[in-house]
Amino acid sequence: MDNQAHYRIHISKLNEVYLKVTCDNPGICYELVQYFTFEVPGHKFMPAYRNKMWDGKIRLFSDKTGKIYVGLLDYIKEFCDRNEIGYDIDDDVIDSKDVDIEVVEEFIKSLKPKSKGKDLTLRDYQTEAIWYGISKNRGMLVSPTASGKSLIIYALIRYFNLLLKDKKILILVPTTSLVEQMYSDFIDYGWDDKYLHRIYQGHEKDTDKPIIISTWQSLYKLDKKYFENFGCVIGDEAHLFKSKSLTSIMSKLINCKYRFGMTGTLDGTQTHRLVLEGLFGKVKKVTTTKELIDKDTLANLKIKCIVLKHKEEDCKEVKDLKYSDEIQYIVSHKTRNDFISRLCDKLTGNTLCLYQLVEKHGLVLYNLMKDFDRKVFFIHGGVDTEDREDIRAITEKESNAIIVASYGTFSTGINIRNLHNIVFSSPSKSKIRVLQSIGRGLRKPDRGDIHTTLLDIADDFTYKDRKNFTLNHFLERINIYNEEQFDYQIDKIRI
Fold first, then answer.
1. Average pLDDT score over the chain
2. Cβ distance 103 to 159 under 8 Å?
């Protein structure tokens, strides 16, 4: 940095979670506070804001303590360069290293990973992601559903397990299903059970085994001391780590030098990205769904958007409804539900029908479909992990089953290799939910090539010039499809 800069800051490392920024001028600290202050999207609808207990902003830098997440170092440097402020950085702050990708390739080969007894060859983007992680020590790896994230995680923990020796590795996942799935994957790849310990309800939290796979719910209340001996942490489905319970775990890992987040997608907001980069490290886009489809790694995707144009009297009834009331109206609409059930029955192949509200919608759809001349399953949060896994396994052997499942249970982290159709029966505008739900259907079955059809059900209650809430949400989903370069067609049907 130019030594002639009028003002300077000093950057040191407090621990593996926080840096400390010392300013020679209080005004710079104030500017840093402003630079790292963001409004949280949707804060106006949150109880804390409505009850005037919070101003709806998140502050990533404290002028009182000088503390800021280690992963935001590049943003601090960017701030300084933009404002012609000099900076000095302690040697231990920047700890990335030069590693030849050939060395990483040889290491991966030495693992001899397998799947179902057959040798695995890693794809180029998987090798590059592993190399990036080993080189940078930290990173937020963004790779879509069905891109082989668990194999990337496996190679990283094998490497850091050798490197760390006396320290443990923590893998955090959101559900018990994912604990079991990741454990099974690692065993399948060829690792020994003696290295792996699982934690969720009913499981011991203390172990001598070096690798712990746990739900975050099982650990977030534990004292700081529990986390002192971890040297590496990997957060799967890392887009969830903006929640307080998860950031608290990450903040307790003060000796954890190696940090990696894995997710299929981010929500697109700057706030979300910076929190995750602060906790884990810079975002690295590993690959995209479109790239994997083009390379024939994933099943081909067809998107059919079905816009249901409702009767004028229904449009009049909906026009003044609040958002929540519109949702209730839609999911209880008999003609609409009959249409969806008939649509699912007409579809050939295994079909996943996703809904939001269990009793008001999911159960209604299931009751309409349960007597079809094919197997129909009903999945919601109350169905335990073993039963969900049994249904998933059955589906992989079936060719014409219907799964009526809530977004929460089947949009995240459940692998289905033999899925032909996905039906969005409930409105959603969440980019993460939309893309992860699509990802459920893009894994190729072992027996050969298939395509997956997404049927996106939308509702047009337009009255005069006023569009209804969920139609606007549909238009946001169209924006997502355009961003991802997915092909789609739109059909309009009067009901």
1. 90
2. no
Q: CA-to-CA distance for 348 and 453, rounded, in angstroms?
A: 10
Nearest CA to 486 among 292, 262, 265? 292
**What values do phi and psi take at 405, rounded to 5?**
-135, 145
Measured CA angle at 137 (ends 135, 140), to 5 deg: 105
CA distance 76 to 353: 46
C-alpha span between 465 and 451 (Å, rounded): 38
Average pLDDT of the segment spanning 133-160: 94
Cα separation, 326 vs 343, in Å, equals 23
Contact assessment for residue 23 and residue 5, using Cβ atoms and an 8 Å cutoff: no
Burial grade of 310 (CB within 10 A; 0-12, 13-18, 19 or more): buried
- Rounded distance between C-alpha atoms, residue 71 and residue 171, angstroms: 19
Largest CA distance in the chain: 79
**Best CA proximity match to 437, nearest among 461, 408, 466:** 408
Checking DSSP bridges between strand 488-494 and strand 300-309, what pairing results, if any? parallel
Going from the N-terminus, what domains does the chain have, and what CATH number goes with each?
7-89 (3.30.780.20), 101-287 (3.40.50.300), 292-494 (3.40.50.300)
- Distance, CA of 72 to CA of 143 (rounded, Å): 21
Q: Is the pLDDT of residue 305 over 50?
A: yes
Question: For 382, how many CA atoms within 13 A lie in the half-sphere containing its CB?
Answer: 6
In the chain, the amino acid numbered 385 is T
pLDDT at residue 208 greater than cutoff 50: yes
